[in-house]
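Sanity check

After download, print the first record. It should look like this:
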Amino acid sequence: MGTKTFDGVWFLAYSHDHLPPHVHGRYAGVEVLVELVNGTVRLAHRPKAIRPPNGKQSDVNHILNTATKHAAELMELWRIING
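Expected structure tokens:
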């Protein structure tokens, strides 16, 4: 597992994890599954992409906006951890 922290958001990448490249962003008790596809960041299109499901939208937005600002660094983290 590898981690990075930006603007209070803790991002985790797990080794031997499934595609597409993604990280788990955690902030204020909310976890968001963030996909890193073709240089862009997006909320994963799968069930439980936001936990808890009723997490504050402002916290979800903060995680996604932070991931967007640091997309290159997060993709590099994914590459390092998953070869």
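If your output differs, re-run the checksum step. Summary of this record's structure: The helical segments are 57-69, 71-82.
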